[in-house]
Amino acid sequence: MKPHRLTLTNSLVIGYGLHQKMDHFFSPRSATQAELEEYHDPDYVDFLRRLVGVGSGLMKEGQDCFNFGEDCPVFDGLYDFVRQYSGASLVAARKLAQGTTDIAINWSGGLHHAKKAEASGFCYVNDIVLAILELLR
After folding, report:
1. Would you state the pLDDT for residue 63?
2. Catalytic: which of 19, 24, 40, 113?
3. Stretch among 2-6, 53-57, 126-130 having the lowest mean pLDDT
4. C-alpha angle 55-57-59 in degrees, rounded to nearest 5
């Protein structure tokens, strides 16, 4: 999912007043590298982290090793983006597990195509797996 779609989703939620129907609205923290590595391969997570100021060497590595390309483009702020949506899913899972809420929605989450060590289908980190692992604790 491309980040501009998330901005559009947020605008629609606010535009239609859906946010006023929610009991709580949270701005979660970003997932840590260790949290991402609960499922994802450390080399893959490290590659995502190193994508700041992308150079041609990193792009070649991304294409060859981690399935980056047309279906999973590299963009400015990618690592922060994956940390933010993954952190939101982790916060939602923790609130469900603690019983502090019955319903939790992460508008930016559900990016379930990412594999353990590669991007897939516009998904870079599989926040669903991370949330399920959190719920299983």
Report:
1. 79
2. 113
3. 53-57
4. 70
